[in-house]
Design brief:
By secondary structure, this protein is an alpha/beta fold. The chain has helices at 16-33, 44-56, 61-66, 85-97, 113-127, 180-184, 199-207; strands spanning 2-6, 9-13, 36-40, 67-71, 73-75, 135-139, 164-169, 173-178, 188-193, 227-231. 44% of the residues are buried.
Amino acid sequence: MSDIATSAGKVRVLSREDSFAELARRINDLAARGSASVGLSGGSTPKAFYVWAVRTGALTAEAIARIDWHVSDERCVPLASDDSNFGHALRGMLDPLGIPAARRFPWPVELPPAEAATAYEAAWAQRSPYKAFDLCILGLGDDSHIASLWPQCPLIGRRSGPRFTATEWPGRGWRLTITEAGLAQCGAIVVLVGGAAKAPALREITCGEFAPKLHPGQVLRAHASRLTWLADQAAAAGL
């Protein structure tokens, strides 16, 4: 393991299994202090984490009982769809671990996108008006996107307003996503990054000229003190 300090926070270089163990430790530490919220991410690496967490029993009984599970962004599809981020979390981890129904908080995808975002934001305002997730887990796209903040997304640069909203990603349909305002209210942010294909994006975000419209992950620089990248050696090779 090695740590690399960057303008976008600490990059911790670990094997995939060690990254998963570090993420589980953070979740368990939250649960040891009481009820907490975790925003999961979509993508192949989180799906692998779910399988690993179930196989290894890495999450404690406290985590199973005390953590509220969300996803940081979602496609506007039914939970049964193979495109649903929360659906993957359900099938891969929440159901196998017996997570209580009261601890599951999917986006209301049965509503039209704008209404779903408004309803989700309103539910957050009732539970927690001044903060978002205690731990926000993100992935990183080859194009430097995080959550559903994509290159040239009109949401980039809006640091006030709702913590959660809807956005139409050209060619990919409507998405529901945490915003920059939401990221600012997260207790901690962890980004899972794996593979050589992600190395250029990680390098641009952590070391490149600041151009968040081109490299959306650069918005995370504003939260460097609360941000950790868990990257394998291939992803971190350009740092």
